[in-house]
Design goal:
Blueprint lengths: L1 H20 L6 E7 L2 H18 L1 E7 L5 H11 L6 E5 L19 H4 L10 H4 L3 E2 L2 E2 L2 E2 L6 E5 H6 L10 H11 L3 E2 L2 E2 L4 E3 L6 H10 L15 H15 L3 E3 L5 H6 L5 E4 L8 H6 L4 E4 L17 E5 L6 H13 L1 H11 L26 H9 L11 H18 L4 H13 L4
Parallel strand pairs: 1-2, 1-3, 10-11
Antiparallel strand pairs: 3-14, 4-5, 6-14, 7-12, 7-13, 8-9
Helix pairs in contact: 2-12, 15-16
Length: 425
Amino acid sequence: MLRRNTVSMVVLVLVIGLLSGVGLAAKQKVTLWSFAPNNIMEWEARKADIDKKFDIDLVIEEVPENAFVQTLQAAMMDGTNFPDIIEWRIEQNQILDADPKRSLVIPLDKYVSKSDAFKKVPAGRVAWTTYGGHVYGLPHDVHPVVLLYNDTLWKSVGVDMAKIETWDEFFVAAQKLTATKKDGKPVHYALPYDGGGLGATMWMIWQQTGAEVLDKDGKPIFTNPEFTSFTKWWVDKVKSGMLVSWDWGNFGALLADGTLAAYTTPDWYINQVDAAAAEGKYQFRVRDLPLYKKGGPRTSSWGGSFMAITRGSKKQDLLYKVMEYMQYDEPSLTSRYVDSQMVPPFSSVWNDPAFKQADPRFGGQKLGELQTELAAEMPGVNSGDIFWDAVSTDFNTQFTEMVAGRVTVEEGLKRAQDAALKRLK
C-alpha cells in the first residue's frame, strides 16, 4: 500500500511539473519603456487585452524624458535589462541612424512592406521615423496642425480669416489688427513665435514650404534658395512687431484677454483655448493653415511619439505584432481620440462618427473632421542622422544672430551649413 501511494505521488509530481512547463508556465515578458505618461495610461488600460491576445506579460515602465536616451544607451551597452520595445518622441529623437548597425532600434522594413495596417499611416508622418531609407518606428499619432483664431477680433478690423488664402495675405491683414497700440506696443498680436529659432510657429510653417535642410542622402543644405528665402521671410515677420513670444505658462490667458489673436496648433494644444471659449467674450474658429505658396500643403505637424524594437531583442516577429496592435487596433484608436482628442495616424478610422462631432468651442465647427482631412495631406520632411543637432544647435544659434542683425541671413546660413557639415560621419 505504501509503495502504491509512493508511485501515485511521483506521478502527481510529474504531472504538475509537466503542466508547469507547458500550460502553467509564466507568460513571456515583454518590456516597454515609455517617456509619455499620457500614453502609459492608455497602455495600462489595455494591458489585459494585449496580454491575452499575445499570451504575454506586458511590463510597462516609465523612464524620465530627460534621462531616456542615456538610460537606454547604458542598458544596451551592458546587454542586460534593456527593453524589448521603446516609445520615444518623434522630434529630437536622436536614437535612430541611417546605418542599422549604429541605430539603437532595428529597421522595420521587412514588416511594414507586408503590413496592410501600415499602408493606412500617412507617408508624411512616417517620414519622421525614416532614416537612410529605413523605417524604424510606428507613429502613435499624427498631430495635424490647424489655425485657431479669434474671429471676433479679426472681424472687428474687417478681416474674415476664413477667406484668407496665403500667409502673405494673413500678414497684410494682420497690419490692421496690430495697428492699435498701447505704450508703443500692439494691443493684439497676430501669432506667437519662439525666439530661439526653428520651433513652434516657425517649425509648423516651415514644413509647408518644401524647403528642406537635409537632402535625401542626409547631407545639410541650409544655403539652398528655398530655405534661404523662407528664413528671410520669417526674420522679416519677427521684426515686424506683429508677433509675440510663445509664452507656455501664460498662453491661455493671452487668448482670453485678446492679446493673442491666432495661433497654429496641433491637436494636443487646442485645449489652451478652453477657458477663453467658455468665458464667451470672444468667438473662436478653426481652419486649415494659410498656404505658404499656392498649391502647397495646408497643414503640418508638431510633436508626437513612435514605437520601435530595440536591437538585440528576442522574438522580434512577435514584438512587431504586439507593437502594431498597440498602435493601430481600430476600436482602440477611436477611444484614443474620444479620451484624449489626439488624432490617430490611421486613415481607416477617420470616418467614425467620433471625428465628426460639432465642437461648441468653435461655434459648432467639426474640428475632428477638419483635422482628419488635413492629416491625409501631411507633408513629409527629409530627416536623418544629423538633423536634430543641425537644426537645434547649428541653425538656431545663427538664427538669433540674424534676428539681432549681427549677421545677414546668407552669412548665418553659411555658418550653420559649415557647422552641420562637420557632423557628417
